[in-house]
Write a structure and sequence with these properties.
single chain, 262 residues, 17 strands, globular
Amino acid sequence: MSQIAYRRYDAFAALPLAGNPAAVVRLDAWLPDERLAAIAGELNHWTAFVRREGDAWHVRVFTIPPVVETALCGHGLLSAARSLFDAGETEAVLQTRDGAVPARPIEGGAEIDFPAIPLEPSMRPPPFAGQLGGKALRWWKRKEGYPAWLALFGRADEVAALDPRPLAGLEALVVATAAPGHGVDFVSRLFQPMKSLLEDPAGGTQHAIAAPFWAGRVGKHALSARSLSPRGGRCDLVVEGDRVKIAAPVTFVGEGTLRLPD
């Protein structure tokens, strides 16, 4: 039997049992993909595997079951960055399959420099709009890439009241958002019905979509945000061109060792 250590973090949260949980595993050498997927499945957490290669830290993130790899996972990258800072690193470049994500430490957490996701107005609501519920004022859609939609609501409590269960199986991302609310510039929720969970508690994609939208709408590039998912989450954002800096608390919640067959 061999052993492998892991650490667990709650990203976007200043206290345990909130925000978005992820496990982090440091590797000296890459394991076969099926072994990485099996480890993530055993931990039953989104798991960031981290290995140093030259001046960069390469990161691969696998989801909870059913296990698939996802390149740009905000809470996984925040957790990976925080684990490196906890180990004494003062800055890091996280190399993902979809490009480099610079990271730096902040008090109680980490900041990552994430690619923004641009939107364009939709002339009509998407076919699934009635399944989401509520009364969205307008809809926007992702300009290119995997289907993603943003629904603008008039009040934060409307966003909080949405029930994503009727969206199960939908092949699209949906961000519901409103402003202001809960002491921040905007609130939002990210529904991922095609994934193994209907709602992401708080994530990078959520804010890579919502932050540029609100920056253009309210005319300011530094924004505070809160996720209204059941676990909640918060972050500060700076929109700079086609990038979004996401600064969030990341809380260490535990560590352990897995015993694996050789």
